[in-house]
Amino acid sequence: MNTKKLVIAVLAVFVLLEVTGYLIHSVLLASTYMEEAISKAFRPMAEMDSMMWRMMVADLVFSFFFVFIFIKGYQNKGIMEGVRYGVYIALFMNFSASVAQNVVYPIPFSLALQWFIYGSIQMVLIGVVTAYLYKPAEAKQA
Asked: Which tens digit of pLDDT belongs to each residue from 71-114?
């Protein structure tokens, strides 16, 4: 395992996760979240803001395991390996989470579908970044 590349990839994934998360939730879905029926399902904004550090810790842990699991299955197949990995993670996490949240919380199916679609794009993007940045020492020498 190339520890330096691991750390670089984890940090890059974390930053990209934060940026894309902001774009998805604070830009693309902001007006949807403001709808009265949907806003009732969430904590007040001030309360969420005061706990946002928890989300960042969770995203950092996610970033580590996203890269770590990629490394464990690394096949040296380039960017397409990252695309495939991103799709696998999107289907594993985003599909099940979006469906479950639509069942548990009073949110419309259209919002759950947007979470799945945007989250899947996000996972593929960070999969590509991971594949681009992480190359074990042995693969570089070959």
From this structure: 999 998 999 999 999 999 999 999 999 999 999 999 999 999 99
- Measured CA to CA in angstroms, residue 82 lies from 11, 71, 131 at distances of 16, 11, 5
DSSP letters for the chain: --HHHHHHHHHHHHHHHHHHHHIIIIIISHHHHHSHHHHTTS--HHHHHHTHHHHHHHHHHHHHHHHHHHHHT----THHHHHHHHHHHIIIIIIHHHHHHHHHSS--HHHHHHHHHHHHHHHHHHHHHHHHH---HHHHH-
Is the pTM here over 0.70, yes or no? yes
- Alpha-carbon gap, residue 86 to 94, rounded angstroms: 11
- What is the length of the chain? 142
What does the pLDDT look like over 6-18, one tens digit per residue? 999 999 999 999 9
Which residue, 102, 120, 121, is CA-closest to 111? Answer: 102
